[in-house]
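Researcher: I'm preparing a figure for a lab meeting and need a structural model of a single chain. I don't have an experimental structure, so a prediction will have to do for now. The sequence is pasted below. Please return the structure as tokens so I can convert it later.
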Amino acid sequence: DPRREARLMLAAVLGLGAGDVIAYPERAVSAAQVADVQAATARRAGGEPLSRILGRREFWSLSFAIGPDTLDPRPDSESLIEAALKHLRQCPGRAGAYRVLDLGTGSGCLLLALLSELPNAWGLGVDINAGALAVARENARQLGLTARTAFLQADWGAALGGRWDVILCNPPYICAGHMDGLPPAVRFDPRRALDGGSDGLESYAKLLPQAKDLLDPAGLLALEVGINQGNEVCSLAAQAGLALQGRIEDLSGVERCLLFKPDLGITDQTATPMASDRRD
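Model: Understood. Here is the structure written out token by token.
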């Protein structure tokens, strides 16, 4: 939709709402602003996503700042939020004072989107990148969630203890050998947030045993996976002591989210796919 994107870029440069660009066509534009619009247009023509140019992305109907150290959130990742909400609504407790952990938080979109639906919950976002954590903290401030969040620089859950009701994670899962063949838009994401090692599973092998030790006995791990990785990740999870609870497909019919609980003696590694409850 080039007309819409052009309006959004112009509005961003001028510091206006997108509707103002249409409502006030007579507004004067300075030479410096024209140069800024031309620079933004050149970036878009070069394949850079509009969200990267604007520095913001909508996720779960919320606006999130993004930066060079954060992944650009995709709508498919909303399946993790849907799954976590469904789980908590079926297992209410502690007056909704749930503890939520987001491993590899990036912009904080997963953690903050879930907390926006749970007014009595508290959450911790963990990331190894200090730049990403700075963006996440700012998003928490803009969304009015600073008092119910904390952020920690660490390697997955290695530095953590305690028990968590929900753990969210969208780890790097692209095979290193496939990185150079990614679509142009994806190449603007930080490589560290995408590269899952030689087989795409390195992050899962590290974080799954940690998640098992961090989950409450009734807790849920909602984990994003890449295309055709589900069975391999399930095998790693079983070895780590986690029992599969469900498989969720995105709107394209691709298996996108796996749900696990601590294995308390019942391991169902053949759980049937679950339809996504994504909102319109």
